[in-house]
Each structure stands twice: as C-alpha cells, then as structure tokens.
Amino acid sequence: MTSLEWVDQELENLKNEGRYVPIRILETSQGAHVKIEGKEVLNMCSNNYLGLANNPEVKKAVVEAIDEYGIGAGAVRSIAGTMEIHMKLEEKVASFKHMESALVYQGGLLANLGTIPVLVSKEDVIFSEELNHASIIDGMRLSSAKRYVYDHMSVENLEKNLKEHRKEGKRSLIVTDGVFSMDGDIAPVKEIQELKDKYDTMFYVDDAHGEGVLGKNGRGIVDHFGLQGKVEIEMGTFSKALGSMGGFVAGSQKLIDLLKQRARPFLFSSALNPGDTAGVLKSIEIMERDDSLVKKLWENANFLQKGFRDAGFRLTSTKTPITPVVIGDEKKTLELSNYLYKNEGVFASPIVFPTVAKGVARIRVMPSAVHSKDDLKRTLEAFENGAKALKIM
C-alpha cells in the first residue's frame, strides 16, 4: 500500500454515503441564469443576493481601478501594500456600519482567523454559538482561549455558561453568526447584547449573511436591531451581497489600530486587489443610494418560501431569504439536486454532512434581487416534479 492509497477509500466512502458533492463549473458571469456544460440553467444557489456580482456600474468601477492602480497590491498592508483605495473603502465601511473605524481583509474567513486571536488568548474564555461558521471555529482554535459552546439560539443557555465560566478568563468574548447560513434564522442579538453588559464581556457578530439583506439599505444585523454603538465588533464579507471579494471588521479606532499591529492576515498576506476593493466601494454606494434591490430580494424570498410551504415542502424556521428545503436523507438529497439539474435545468446544490448534521440534508435555495417571478415559479415547479419522480414527498 502506497502512502496515499487511503485517499481512494475515503473518496469511495463519501460516494457510498451520498456525501460526494459534484462541483459544477460556471462558464458565464454570475447571475440568475448561468451556463454550465454548455447549457443555460437557472441559478438558485448563489450568495449573490443583490445581483451586484455582474452589475454594470460595479464592473465599470473595477476596470477603472485596475487602470489606475494595477492588478495587484504587490505587498502586505504593513509594508507597501496599503493603497489609497484601501483607505477609502475602510472609511466607507466604517461610515456604512456606523462604527469609528474598519479594517479590510482579503476574505471573510481571514477576517475571523485574523481578529479573534487578537481579541482573546490562552488566558481568556470564549462563549460560542453552537452553529457558528467554520471560520469562527478555526479562529477560536488559533486563539488558544478556553471555549464553551452554548445551545443554538438559546439566550438562557448562554447565560448559564456565562454564570458558570465567565470568571475563568481574564478577558471574555461572546461570538455568534448574525444570520445562520444553513438555516436562515437570526441570532437574538439584542438579548445577547444585554448579557454582554451584565457579564463584562466583549461581543463579536459575524454578519456575513446579513450584509445587504438586513437593516436600513442592507446595513446588517446590528442596524436591524437598532444596536449601533452597542456591539463592539462587527465582521462581514464582501463576497455575498456585495458581489466582490474580501472581508472586514468594524469597531473602535483603537481596536482597529491594534489589529493592524497584530492580525496575521494583515501582516503576512498581500492586500486585497485594487479591482476587488473598487467593486466593493461601488456596491456600497449603490446600496446607500436606495433600497430597491434589498426590497426586491425580500419580495422574491417571501414569494418563493410561501410557494414551497404551500406545496408541502419542509423548510427550516428561516427568517431571511435563505431558503433551505430539508430532504433529510443524504442520497435522496443528491438525487434531487441531480434531477433538478439534468431534467429541469435548475442549478441547486445539495448540502450534506459535515456542512449540516446527519439526517437533515437539504437543498439551500437562494433567491436574489435579479430573479424574475417566472424564475421562481419555474423553481417551484421543478422541485415538485423532482419530488414526485423520486418519491420524496
């Protein structure tokens, strides 16, 4: 047996268990309709909430920035990679989020990996939501802080953990997703903020799926709950509703100053490309200008979710446009996804373990502001056809 023969067995196990997910290759720009394997399909699984990934204004801004600043930043931010356009974006993000300052990272995952280990270390303690994103979990591991996991959406269980373990750490951090990407539910941020004050702990919200979706003009979950200035650290991404690439952390000026001295992705990885930076700037400007895209997103989401429920499909308790259609069995979920793609021309990827727990496999349907009503009706009809053909319902 060679040193890598075990890989064959691992792949075979994934296929036998219904957990080997095919990766489709898009041959066109991101949008409501895309081309895969030479045919046009309806795209129902992208995070491009507002359609900004292919927006003409955004594309024009990217091209102009490349003409002015070039393709790459050429260095890490702390040496020679901080460009004027990075500073403009950080000022824009801070203003948009009603925060003193902001720091732009190369991605949302790097924002969590870079920030959490600066906030807490091995002498400290973290209270983490049960269904937090993998990037939060990795950031906590890198911090070496003691970790306690509280039950999903349970303020009561969080307080129980705080009572029992808060004093074990010199510093303390509560960290939660704002919107949970696999279920679509919204963290009880207002109640957590009250516990934060009661137990003298920092509060960190990962709002990757709240940007462009919740709050005034898509400002996110803190704005949604009217808690501006009461949550110390807001993290978000630019790769979903804003249609580009990158991530950020917003907070006090002093916190951002410290992150610039300590955050490893800032210190050891080249800066976000100028084109991506310009694209995000333009996306935020479009969102600030009016809320028509956000309103259209919610209109489409409400229509689609009502249609699924009326047809008898099982959805999660989603409170956002994220629309998880729960099938349960993992092989059946893959079969339905393949049926939709091959027979109905609907691209909707399966979500299976370990992304979600075993037994709750699903197809996460993602409506956007650029889908038409006909697109949504076609999606509902396709799911009904697939469920009947595969005897799922």
UniProtKB/TrEMBL annotation:
Single GO biological process annotation from the record: biotin biosynthetic process
Record-level Gene Ontology MF annotations: 8-amino-7-oxononanoate synthase activity; ligase activity; pyridoxal phosphate binding
N6-(pyridoxal phosphate)lysine PTM sites in chain numbering: 240
Cytoplasm among keywords: no
Occurrences of domain Aminotransferase class I/classII large (ranges): 40-383
Pfam hit, one: Aminotran_1_2
Source taxon at top rank: Archaea
Described purpose of this protein according to its UniProt entry: Catalyzes the decarboxylative condensation of pimeloyl-[acyl-carrier protein] and L-alanine to produce 8-amino-7-oxononanoate (AON), [acyl-carrier protein], and carbon dioxide.
Name by which UniProt lists this protein: 8-amino-7-ketopelargonate synthase
Source species taxonomy: Archaea, Methanobacteriati, Thermoplasmatota, Thermoplasmata, Thermoplasmatales
